[in-house]
Amino acid sequence: MNICQSCTMPLTSDKAYGTNAVGTPNPDYCHHCYHDGRFIDELTVEQMTERCLPFLEHQMDVEKARAYLAKKLPTLKRWNVEGKKPARE
Ligand SMILES: [Zn+2]
């Protein structure tokens, strides 16, 4: 399953994808994070963690969710220093 490379949201349908500047779907990011070729919000990884927690709390307790995000977010393209390249078109 694809997940958003910014917030971990599952990309389960075409509508979940963000859009590139040219209007095509971006395969890496969801529409909450990415729109018209740019990130909607400039966030730090800590801010993103706080933003994701309410969604994960449905599935696990908050400490587990926090630990999951602390491990998961740095591996995603947006937060991975190695991978700080523009999103694929
Ligand atoms: Zn996202």
Give me the secondary-structure topology:
Elements lengths: L16 E3 L5 E6 L3 E2 L2 E2 L5 H12 L5 H11 L17
Antiparallel strand pairs: 1-2, 3-4
The protein binds zinc ion.
The site of zinc ion (ZN) has 8 residues, from β2.
Give a written overview of the molecule.
The strands form two sheets. A two-stranded antiparallel ribbon has the order 1-2. β1 and β2 form a beta hairpin. It has a domain of 62 residues. The chain is globular and about 40 Å long. It contains two helices and four strands. The protein is α+β, with helices and mostly antiparallel strands and 89 residues long. Bound molecules: zinc ion. Zinc ion binds next to β2.
Strand content: 5-15%
Helix content: 25-40%
Spatial strand arrangement across the major sheet:
1-2
Output the radius of gyration. 13 Å
Q: End-to-end span in angstroms? A: 20 Å
Uncertain runs are none
Succession of helices and strands: EEEEHH
Number of contiguous helices: 2
Please summarize the sheet with the most strands.
Answer: 2 strands, antiparallel
- Name the overall outline: globular
